[in-house]
């Protein structure tokens, strides 16, 4: 009897002493873990070096303890982000225990020097949380260099952008119908990977030869700064009108310029003057049953440099359209494709397109016909090539060709794919075949804003001085 009493007394005492009570851990992969957020966005715009701290909570929703095998900041000690896990400052911590139906906090800080030119505009990292064979993530995003940051912005009133700071687009940007966004010379616009620039109103981008307007992706660090498809592109939709791009460079987009549906008035939906489009993953210019007037335009090294489909009205004068394969983009399709229908949609629409004093060229051995014209139905179809230089084994059908220079190398000044050197001006030694072979037009300058013509106009966007 005495022994039984001692056993009961010991068990009672042990139950009253927490340190003596062994709590079990759940090892089930189905254990319930709740994280208060899946991302932290540090939207503070720094004007000087500074730090901001945010936090999130990890909640164990089980009736047993849960052991996190690791919480880790993936960028480690080199990351501009720092983490503190329940009072312990470390980029990684193993075997973190959370009591049943309890939680811990993870504090995240970021220190930014906005004047550091080597910083990207958007700084990213992530935190990995592992337990019972599972892995969860919390994404981190902070503003880097000082800029005008616009997240899911709608331009709802007439607005002018100046070049005091770059503009960084996150999520998307929309110019509303009947609203004009004016962009002044020297403005630089950097778009995130998920951020299209959508124009339902009017975009007036007026650069100058010495202060061009730049559209590109927001990753400026190597190797990403030269990647195609680093941002979606500019989309001129059905209600857009009277759009102008002058001295504008559009680089590294998925589809650089997309122009949709007919103009709402007698003007072209989009006028492009002295612009450069380069390194688009899909299309440099995609026109779909719309209207574009372009002069002194360079479209280079895109998967599909110019695609015009479903009809429309187009005029291209003194343009150079050229592609050379690289380790990022192979030249596999014609640099110019013109149709009055769309793939998968045989409905034919009226098409009028004129190409004057222009070069259509790609590196040898990849595409036999750099200009392709396809027609369906009996709608109006008028496609003309006047004084153009191009590569083709078979001339495009359904088109009128006048004074062509065919299958003769245009002799660009210098092209070095490995070094990413692309100078599409005319070579003079030996003399490029497009020099003094153009048709006289009202244009008085070239892409460099230098006089045109010098003698007889040259073919292409540049005039040999």
Keyword list:
2 domains; 465 residues; mainly beta; Immunoglobulin-like; disordered N terminus; nine-stranded parallel beta barrel; Pectate Lyase C-like
Characterization of this structure:
With 465 residues, the protein is mainly β. It folds into two domains: 33-143, Immunoglobulin-like, CATH 2.60.40.2310; 148-426, Pectate Lyase C-like (3 Solenoid), CATH 2.160.20. It contains one helix and 36 strands. Strands 13-15-18-21-24-25-22-19-16 form a nine-stranded parallel barrel. It has a five-stranded antiparallel sheet with strand order 1-3-8-5-6, with no helix packed on it. The radius of gyration is 30 Å and the shape is elongated. The model is unreliable at 1-21 (pLDDT under 50).
Present the secondary structure layout:
Layout: H1 2-16, E1 33-35, E2 39-42, E3 50-60, E4 66-73, E5 81-85, E6 88-89, E7 92-98, E8 103-112, E9 122-131, E10 134-143, E11 148-155, E12 159-161, E13 167-175, E14 180-183, E15 188-191, E16 197-199, E17 202-206, E18 213-217, E19 234-236, E20 243-246, E21 248-251, E22 255-260, E23 270-273, E24 276-278, E25 283-300, E26 304-323, E27 336-339, E28 351-356, E29 359-362, E30 371-374, E31 381-386, E32 389-390, E33 400-402, E34 405-406, E35 412-416, E36 421-426
Parallel strand pairs: 2-10, 11-13, 12-14, 13-15, 13-16, 14-17, 15-18, 16-19, 17-20, 18-21, 19-22, 20-23, 21-24, 22-25, 23-25, 24-25, 25-26, 26-27, 26-28, 26-29, 27-30, 28-31, 29-32, 31-33, 32-34
Antiparallel strand pairs: 1-3, 3-8, 4-7, 4-9, 5-6, 5-8, 9-10, 35-36
């Amino acid at each position: 009897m005495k022994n039984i009493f001692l056993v009961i007394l010991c068990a009672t005492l042990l139950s009253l002493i927490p340190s003596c009570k062994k709590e079990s851990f759940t090892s089930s992969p189905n254990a319930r873990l709740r994280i208060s957020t899946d991302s932290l966005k540090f939207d503070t715009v720094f004007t000087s070096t500074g730090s901001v701290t945010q936090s999130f909570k990890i909640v164990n929703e089980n009736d047993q303890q849960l052991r996190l095998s690791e919480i880790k900041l993936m960028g480690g000690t080199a990351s501009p982000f720092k983490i503190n896990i329940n009072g312990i400052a470390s980029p990684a911590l193993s075997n973190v225990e959370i009591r049943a139906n309890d939680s811990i906090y993870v504090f995240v800080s970021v220190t930014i020097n906005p004047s550091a030119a080597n910083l990207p505009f958007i700084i990213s990292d992530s935190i990995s949380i592992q337990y019972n064979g599972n892995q969860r993530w919390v994404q981190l995003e902070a503003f880097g260099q000082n800029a005008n940051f616009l997240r899911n912005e709608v331009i709802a009133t007439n607005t002018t952008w100046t070049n005091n700071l770059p503009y960084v687009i996150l999520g998307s940007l929309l110019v509303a119908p009947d609203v004009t966004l004016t962009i002044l010379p020297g403005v630089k616009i950097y778009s995130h990977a998920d951020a299209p620039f959508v124009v339902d109103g009017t975009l007036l981008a007026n650069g100058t030869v010495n202060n061009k307007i730049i559209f590109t992706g927001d990753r400026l660090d190597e190797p990403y700064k030269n990647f195609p498809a680093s941002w979606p592109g500019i989309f001129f939709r059905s209600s857009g009108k009277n759009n102008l791009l002058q001295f504008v460079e559009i680089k590294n987009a998925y589809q650089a310029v997309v122009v949709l549906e007919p103009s709402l008035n007698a003007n072209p939906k989009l006028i492009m003057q002295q612009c450069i489009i380069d390194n688009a993953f899909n299309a440099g210019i995609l026109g779909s049953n719309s209207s574009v007037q372009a002069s002194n335009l360079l479209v280079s090294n895109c998967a599909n440099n110019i695609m015009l489909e479903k009809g429309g009205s187009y005029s291209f004068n003194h343009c150079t359209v050229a592609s050379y394969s690289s380790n990022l983009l192979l030249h596999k399709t014609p640099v110019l494709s013109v149709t009055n229908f769309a793939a998968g949609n045989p409905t034919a629409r009226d098409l009028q397109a004129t190409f004057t004093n222009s070069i259509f060229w790609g590196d040898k051995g990849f595409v036999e016909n750099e200009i392709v014209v396809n027609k369906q139905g009996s709608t109006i179809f008028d496609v003309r090539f006047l004084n153009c230089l191009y590569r083709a084994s078979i001339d495009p059908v359904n088109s009128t060709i006048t004074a062509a220079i065919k299958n003769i190398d245009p002799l660009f000044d210098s092209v070095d794919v490995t070094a990413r050197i692309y100078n599409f001006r005319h070579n003079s030694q030996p003399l490029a075949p497009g020099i003094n072979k153009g048709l006289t037009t009202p244009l008085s300058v070239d892409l460099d804003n230098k006089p045109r013509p010098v003698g007889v106009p040259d073919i292409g966007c540049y005039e040999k001085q």
